[in-house]
Amino acid sequence: MESIEDRYFLTVNAGSSSLKINLFKVDKDLGLVLKGSIQDISNDESHFLVTTEKERVLNNTREHCDSLATAAQLFAQWLFLEEIPVTAIGYRIVQGGTAHRQPELIDSVFLEYLKSIRSLAPTHIPDEMNVISTFMKVFPTVKHIACFDTFFHSSIPPHAKYYPLPRFLWKEGVQKYGFHGLSFEYIMQYLQRSVPDETNGKIVIAHLGNGSSLAAVNNGVSVDTTMGMTPIGGLMMGTRCGDVDPGVLLYLLIQKKMTAPDLEHLLSHESGLKGVSEVSADLETLLSLELENSQVAEALDLFCYNIRKMIGAMTAVLNGIDTLIFTGGIGEHASVIRNRICDGLQYLGIRINSGNGNSGELISSKNSAVKVRVIKTDEAYMIAKHMLLFS
Q1: Which of 236, 328, 357 lies closest to 15 in space, CA to CA?
Q2: Catalytic residue among 40, 107, 149, 197
Q3: What's the CATH number of domain 196-374, 3.40.50.1470, 3.30.390.10, 3.30.420.40, 3.40.50.10860?
């Protein structure tokens, strides 16, 4: 490791069952130094892996890890004991409410505010607060910076932002916030560098992973997105239901006598691909089973249909489409899913080539009226870039 006088930014990204960190050296640009993850949290053998930017393994162990807080403790202690230089820590925060969108320094006042809005993202905010508190205890003298997943969508106009509910609920913050903003922001900055002539066009970005959403981007800014007030809404996802008739929720509460925590667990953890297939939320597993399991086939069909329908909706918002971009774990790697989504979008002028799986970034055919791209996202880099504002 180089001199501790150099600046090193640590980024922390807490997922539903994983914790990821990246360390960047601040120089003329942001250079990745190391990356790490703890996967399968709440498992007796969670995988704790840390490598350098050149994939040299620094730690590769199996750990008992029952929560994100435990994972944060493992990471923080490892960084401290290995004397990894950390001069600032940035966190991906799912939600900051109406008052907090732009990146900001974390202090006790901010943490109290975050606690007060945990109902906006009950499956994310409590865990994120535990992770922040753990790192702040181990690294009390460095700057801690919140980077919100909602920031990119601050530009969404009122007609797309508000629900047709009484206005007093609007004033209480019941509105569409949108998520995956750090990913969408990275994609737009990448597009600006690589094909700037497309940046100001009509763009639909599909971030597809265990959590999935679409963004409609016009002239470089978000004008609508599929996720709403919480990350449960929008597209069907790995374990989340996406949009459903509100009457279904009333049925579950009244007729099935579900409690609010039971309902939240069902919608967030037992629905989506997992709930419909009754097998798994893992796409690779489902693809391997679909020929022999009709429920798996139905789950995959519903997943692709849902995305295809929503692409049509985002295109209507934009009054056309110039570029469709796939990103996220599924969007980047599952060519068969990209094929199924695009099959049926020919009416928009979307046609992808036969080498969709291995043809590089541009996968649209020569006769396609719409550019279709596959771009690897980098939320950690985006967090680190925001952290430069505070250095």
Answers
A1: 328
A2: 149
A3: 3.30.420.40
